């Protein structure tokens, strides 16, 4: 109490208004919990968009592959006889390419998960399995997902080390984890993704990049997730119905 009294007397003598200083410096803005609420809402919205995109892609693709014969039957009944063969050929090719794409994507996620897990275990992360799994799932979102995953890994790594010294323990390990994740992404971007885009769906990596970019700008995260499967389906249909079109021929020459 005596110390507080002396401080108050000192500031009064010096004619210093502490309330005014705090107000002018806007220190109280750091205690504005609306920022944290907005941040949490952004995360929830992002996860909802990502979940919607994943569910949409896997739901549609699963039933398309599983019930291929049903789709063919419906096509025979609805479409004119002149287009029947084209539609049936399209369904068969789409089924084949999407199956290859999702097998490739699954293998890519497994490889990325294992590499993330190794990085986290090397640096003694307590929640290595959970963090590696979440970051691998985020990797489904092209280009943006790995960035979000690395940020999430850094945050969760720091949270898991609460109570330890920041400079000697938390900061160095977090930096090492980020570097490790960046190396994993370099491997993924230069090996895994090109194989999936060029081998599984028979599309050039630049072509895939442009499609994902346009889909992301137009439809957001959902668009980025569904871009490759949707583009593959469109290419197959265009090739069947407009094989003599020059633009279509260029786009579909690898199918």
Automatic annotation (TrEMBL):
Membrane-crossing ranges are 43-65, 101-123, 129-158, 170-188, 208-231
Per UniProt, subcellular location reads as:
Cell membrane
The protein's superkingdom reads: Bacteria
Q: Name one GO cellular component term.
A: plasma membrane
Q: Name one GO biological process term.
A: transmembrane transport
Among InterPro entries, the record links this protein to: AI-2E-like
* Topology within the bilayer: Multi-pass membrane protein
| Alphabetic keyword roster | Cell membrane, Membrane, Transmembrane, Transmembrane helix, Transport
Tell me its family: Belongs to the autoinducer-2 exporter (AI-2E) (TC 2.A.86) family.
The name this protein goes by in its record: Putative permease
Look up and give the organism this protein is from. Flavobacterium anhuiense
């Amino acid at each position: 109490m005596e110390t507080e009294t002396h401080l108050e007397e000192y500031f009064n003598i010096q004619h210093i208004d502490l309330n005014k200083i705090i107000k002018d410096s806007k220190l109280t803005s750091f205690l504005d919990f609306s920022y944290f609420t907005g941040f949490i809402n952004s995360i929830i919205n992002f996860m909802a968009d990502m979940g919607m995109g994943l569910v949409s892609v896997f739901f549609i693709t699963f039933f398309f592959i599983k019930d291929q014969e049903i789709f063919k039957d419906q096509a025979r009944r609805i479409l004119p006889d002149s287009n029947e063969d084209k539609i049936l050929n399209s369904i068969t090719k789409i089924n084949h390419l999407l199956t290859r794409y999702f097998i490739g994507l699954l293998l890519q996620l497994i490889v990325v998960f294992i590499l993330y897990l190794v990085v986290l275990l090397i640096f003694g992360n307590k929640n290595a399995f959970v963090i590696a799994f979440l970051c691998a799932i985020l990797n489904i979102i092209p280009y943006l997902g790995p960035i979000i995953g690395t940020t999430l890994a850094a945050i969760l790594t720091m949270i898991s080390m609460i109570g330890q010294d920041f400079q000697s323990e938390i900061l160095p390990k977090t930096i090492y984890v980020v570097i490790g994740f960046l190396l994993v992404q370099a491997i993924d971007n230069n090996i895994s993704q090109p194989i999936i885009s060029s081998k599984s769906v028979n599309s050039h990596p630049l072509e895939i990049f442009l499609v994902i970019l346009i889909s992301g700008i137009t439809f957001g995260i959902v668009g980025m997730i569904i871009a490759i499967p949707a583009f593959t389906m469109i290419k197959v249909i265009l090739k069947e119905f407009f094989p003599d079109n020059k633009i279509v021929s260029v786009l579909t020459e690898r199918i």
